Amino acid sequence: MIKKFSFLIGILLFSLQYGQKKEQLQKQNAELKKQIAQINSELAKTRNESKLSIAYLTNVNKKLALREKVYNNTQKEKRFIEDEIYLRQLEINRQNRELEILRKNYAEVLVNAYKNKGVQNKVTFILSSKNLGEAIRRVQYLKQYSDYQDKKAAEITDAATQIKKSIAQRQKSVKDKEVLLVNQQKDLTTINAERAQKEQLVADFKKNEAKLTAELKQKQTQNKAVEAQIRTIIAEEIRIAKAEEEARKKAEAEKIRLAKLAAEREKARIEAENKARAEALERERKLAEAEAKKAADLAAKRAEEERKRTEEAARSEASAKDAARKVAATKASEEANAKAREAANKLAAAKAAEAALAKKKEDEKKAAESKAMTNFGVSAAAGNNFAANKGRLGFPVDKGQITHRFGRQQHPVLKNIVEENNGIKISVPSGTRAKSVFPGSVTSVLASSDGTKTVIVKHGTYFTIYSNLGSVSVSKGQQVSAGTPVGTVGQDFDGSYTLDFQVWSGSTPVDPLGWVSY
């Protein structure tokens, strides 16, 4: 019995796990196939432009990798189905054994019933009882025996139904496997075809290596010329910015000097205006201190006199005269205490007035200094938040695929070519517009010998560069916001539409992928 339950629990757990993993694999394959369809669409669009482009080859490689992932997932799903078929068969075998036992036991029950004729002849069996109690017990026995037979028949029927269900589930798994194998064969055929396509594409690259190498070197020469112009422009911008900053600092220092002089004069005036009032308050405070001391001394004296009188009255018998003296002394003591409190309050008020005057004077001095700085045009230094947004800048195109990364890179096919990239290259659909990634001002619009254009946007001490534009939509000196179109991406020498995007920190190019959100 324990083994039976353990087996059933194992089957149940496997079914749950299998169902979850199978569903997960199917979802992954659906998403992968969606990506493959999108790449196929992009390849169809760019097929007429040029097959001998890195962007086209990158898409083919990406699609092939996705196909292989789908195939691997299908292999996993097939193994799950095979495991399920095996376990279903084990379950069917177990159920057949149990059904055989149930049928054997039921046959024995029927044989016993047949042999015991009295049990079948129920009326005779009951009427042959010796008394009423025995008759009732025989009726109960016959009912229990009948229920037992019905139960055994029901168990046999249920077991047969379960076997049919298990067989149907196994047949479904077998059919699922057959469908999966057909799809797997199709996927394998497609993968082989796409591998052949990739190999043909690489062969075409190598076949046209001389031509492509010459065109690439020509493009690199053009890029070097553009880079030289960019460096010259950025160096000039830095020189101008440095000169302007020095002039600004000098002018700012002079403004600060004049503002401080004006502030000192205003502070002296405030000091003179408040001097008389401060002296008067000081006199009032000193007078209040003297009065408070005098009142306190008087109160102490009265208290001492009262203490002595109380002691004398305790030593001698009290009289009417003593009582009158006691009332007078108490009154005098209370008046002295009241005067002491009044004097203390007056002293506190005098000190508060002095403190308020001192605060008012300081506030007026600060306000005078601030006003002087404002009047002379002294401004707070403005910060550059381009650096603060590192890693969060917008992407320069709505949709695109990075084909060349920053720095020294080996050409993916032409092994004798090494590219030195000051930025990244992004393959995009025809008609794509490049966008400014951050607010700034257009420093320059350059034209290359191949007809393409370059836009340089300044962001404080940083620059973003958008090259290989077929047309531009901004002009020198124009202020742009994040997302402002700067131009339409042009066609590269290999026929693909590629944006060359760069980020410079001063006169040094940096990796754009460390700055943009991609």
Automatic annotation (TrEMBL):
Keywords: Coiled coil, Signal
Residue ranges, annotated region (Disordered): 298-339
Coiled coil: 15-49
Cited CDD domains: M23_peptidase
SUPFAM superfamilies: Duplicated hybrid motif (SSF51261)
Domain (M23ase beta-sheet core) ranges: 420-512
Protein name (database record): Septal ring factor EnvC (AmiA/AmiB activator)
Organism field: Chryseobacterium defluvii
